[in-house]
Amino acid sequence: MIGAIVGRELRGGLVTPLPWILLGAGQVVLAWIFLRVIEDFSGLGADERVASLTQELALNLFGFAAVIAMLAAPLMAMRMLSGEFREGSYQLIEAAPVRLAEVAIGKFLGLALLMTPFCLLPAVNLLMLAGAAELDVGQVAAATLGLWLATLLFCAIGLYASSLTDQPGASVFVAFGILLLFSIVGRAESLTDRTLSLFGWLSWNEHLFWFLLGAVRLSDLAYFIFFTGVFLVLTHRRLANRRLQ
Amino acid sequence: METLLRVTDLSRSFGGHPALSEVNLCLERGEVLGLLGPNGAGKTTCLRLLGGMLAPTSGRIEIQGIDLARRPLEAKRHLGYLPERPPLYPELRVDEYLTFCARLHRIPRRRIAESIDEVKHRCGLDDSGRRLIAKLSKGYRQRLGIAQAILHQPRLLILDEPTEGLDPFQMRELRALIRELARDCGVILSSHLLPEVQAVCDRAVILDQGRIRFNDYLANDKPIFGWRVRLGSGSRLVQLTDLPCLEGAVGIGEDRYRVILMDNADSAELSRQILQAGLDLRELVPEHTDLERAFFDLIGVEGVT
Q1: Is A43 an interface residue toward B (CB < 8 Å)?
Q2: What is the DSSP string of B84-96?
Q3: Residue A210, class by beta-carbon neighbours within 10 Å (0-12 exposed, 13-18 middle, 19+ buried)?
């Protein structure tokens, strides 16, 4: 059943222009950043370089890709539930013998699969340097994993926001609001005792940073998996509550 | 007779406002039930409750003896539902859409192609398999909506305004299809069109303000029940009841009356006597059906007809 829902989301998503625009525009922006980093790096003398080429590329290329994914995921997610509520096509699923958990997971996996090619774009860009420069493959793999996990979190937040309203535009703004909160909550740390790092821990960019440095830490993995799960559970609750409204 | 649907004391409120109150219904196999009512009467709410899309505030729905609230997955396997607006995905092709519906309804993979061919044939979509849903006309979208509802051969079929958007020819085809489907299952359909319900349904339920006001079997061979008369302004009921050809008369609005003729009298006699009594005869309309009479009497909108 999950497979059927994932298949429909993929089929439906691939015939809309959004994923292709995301891939095309994303590649243009990433290529520009890629060239800037290479140019800056090659212009520096060996003693002026503070970080390796892989580190420079990982922090700039993957960091910027995460910001693009954060903006794109709510746009991709809005048609998955909110758009279906508005068009009335969600009634097909409501009247079918399908568990709501299967609906939430199927939609999420469909969205995740549509976003995955974009997550691979920075790594594909780095492939161009294969043979020309020495790259830390492990760090690139860790950064790609981090970007993918962060994108999964954005997808779960986008899907939750999409389940809140029949207005796709409003769902995008709700998702941006939640994502913005998760992005800047780390700055609140400066207002509190440095030893109390709860706000810093809540911020997604703090966790992605360690992946971009090549460190795959269990706590960072747990953060992304936990919050992705939380927003999927909230989506499920929201779908269940629709019957009561 | 096999009871497919049993609804007991079904009620549903939206924020304290009761949309449906204490509805009791039964539907047997082979029966077509028409749900009638003015806008806002609770028809769609009732159908959404029966389809499992809304949870009732109180009451119980059983489909083939299975409680819809306790065992929704099992109950919904026997259910085919067509909402007011067909639930379609414009970006898919007809075959892709029906394949998705077949998988949602857990039709075994080896039977999917066969089921889709059969349902396309039944709904007149034989040549439309490769067509994009976004390019379909309104009538074809409605057909596709019906196709998805009957694809898995449900025992209970719920159709919310199924003739909406169909031309008269398609309407006639749909009526035949509904009668054909009703041989194996029970059908509930809602409609604004009294003749539509009269033509296709065995039984009609009239809802008004969330309550069932009429629930009876329809017989198409009933004789004319009476006549509706509209007289010139200032007329009084007593002037009509004095006429010798009338068995009885009741007022149903300003200068509007419903009259029943004596067995040996006819409409010509009635019009003659009205004129002889010095009254102005503005309208004389036969009341053919119990349903129409019941609808307008219950809903109380005689004045706008």
Answers
A1: no
A2: SS----TTSBHHH
A3: middle
Q: Å from A64 to nearest chain B CA?
A: 32
Of B81, B88, B103, the CB nearest to A89: B88
| B85 chain-A contacts, CB cut-off 8 A | 88
- Give every CB contact of residue A105 below 8 A, 6+ residues apart in sequence: A2, A232
Chain A contact for B104 (CB, 8 A cutoff): yes
Do the Cβ atoms of A242 and A104 come closer than 8 Å? no
Q: Are A84 and A24 in contact (CB under 8 A)?
A: no
- Two tokens at B300? 């109380």
Give the number of other CB atoms < 10 A from CB of residue A25: 12
Residue-number span of the structural domain to which A237 is assigned: 2-242
pLDDT tens string B174-188 = 888 888 888 888 999
Question: From the CA of A109, how many Å to the nearest CA of chain B?
Answer: 17
Decide if A15 touches B, using CB distance below 8 A. Answer: yes
User: Would the CA dihedral through A215, A217, A219, A225 be positive or negative?
Assistant: positive
CB contact under 8 A, B76 and A243: no
3-state SS assignment for residue A10? helix
Please report the pLDDT score of residue B302 as a whole number.
45
Residue B23: strand pairing partners: B10
Cβ atoms of residues B125 and B147 within 8 Å:
yes
Cα(first)–Cα(last) distance of chain B, in Å? 39
B260 Cβ contact partners less than 8 Å away, ≥ 6 residues apart: B225, B226, B227, B246, B247, B248, B249
* Domains of chain B listed by start with CATH number: 1-78+154-222 (3.40.50.300), 88-152 (no CATH), 226-288 (3.30.70.100)
Collect all residues of chain A within an 8 Å Cβ-Cβ radius of residue B74.
97
Decide if B61 touches A, using CB distance below 8 A.
Answer: no
Q: Do B51 and A1 touch (CB under 8 A)?
A: no
pTM reported for the whole predicted model: 0.83
Number of domains into which chain A is organized: 1
Task: List pLDDT tens digits, range B39-97.
Answer: 888 888 999 999 999 999 999 999 988 999 999 999 999 999 999 899 999 999 999 99
Q: Is B134 on the interface with A (CB under 8 A)?
A: no
